[in-house]
Amino acid sequence: MNSGDGSMAKNLLTGAVGVILFLVLWQVIGAYRLAGMGWPTLTSVLDVLATPSRFGTFQRAVTATVRSVLLGYVAGFVMGFGFALLGHLWPRLKVGTDQTTAVIHAIPAIALAPLLIVFFGLAATPIAICALNVFFLVYNATSSGLLSVNNTHGDLFTAYGANRYDRFRWLELPAALPSIAAGLKLAVPAALIGTILGEWFGAPQGVGLLMVAAMQNFQIPMLWSAVLLSVAISLSMMALTSLIEHYVSHRFG
Fold first, then answer.
1. Which of 240, 205, 241, 242 has the alpha carbon at shortest distance from 226?
2. 32 and 62: one domain?
3. Do 7 and 57 belong together in one domain?
4. Per-residue 3-state assignment (H helix, E strand, C coil) for 155-195
5. pTM for this structure?
6. Which domain holds residue 12?
7. What is the DSSP letter of 86?
8. 103 phi and psi, to 5 degrees?
9. Please, where are the H alpha helices in 107-147?
């Protein structure tokens, strides 16, 4: 096992220990009512998740949320990556792309939601908010990655008379891949938060809608079950993107 694999295994072990400790603490706080009635025990939440009559409800909610996350994630990546390329390949546009991205990110998603509902409808609003959250992170990661070229390598390409396209294809883009992969991993929680926020505004299905219904009916274990499902979705996507980041960093870092 090389040092990279050993480091990754150590990080996974540390993360697993942290999760286990958190779950034990969750059970203790709920069992002794240290945080009041709003904090149930982990076992009561798991009992709700294990209730056969609720499987269909949970499955439909998770499927809808994962679908929205994936669609918004892909759309946000395409927009962020494309916008960053636009500013990189045409430097005169760089200031404009930076400022436009900063302005979009500065507007709270909760303020944009009514406009998104008007333009895209209730069902597509979670996808739109998710895409906007991912867009900003991917744009920054791609822009910084494309500027991270080693000066020695850049001078070598210049000395050999490489044109703009060859320089981008063979030097700048490969150098940017580790940064892009890191940005994609960091975008996972932002994507899920954007999706759930969009579902709170009245999406027909999703984990966010499940949370709203549980809050309105004061079904505390059901609310925490929805939270646990969202955590599971986020951790699963984080694990996948971490593997991609590890591979890309090892290959191009």
1. 205
2. no
3. no
4. HHHHHCCCCHHHHHHHHHHHHHHHHHHHHHHHHHHHHHHHH
5. 0.90
6. 1-39
7. H
8. -65, -45
9. 109-120, 125-146
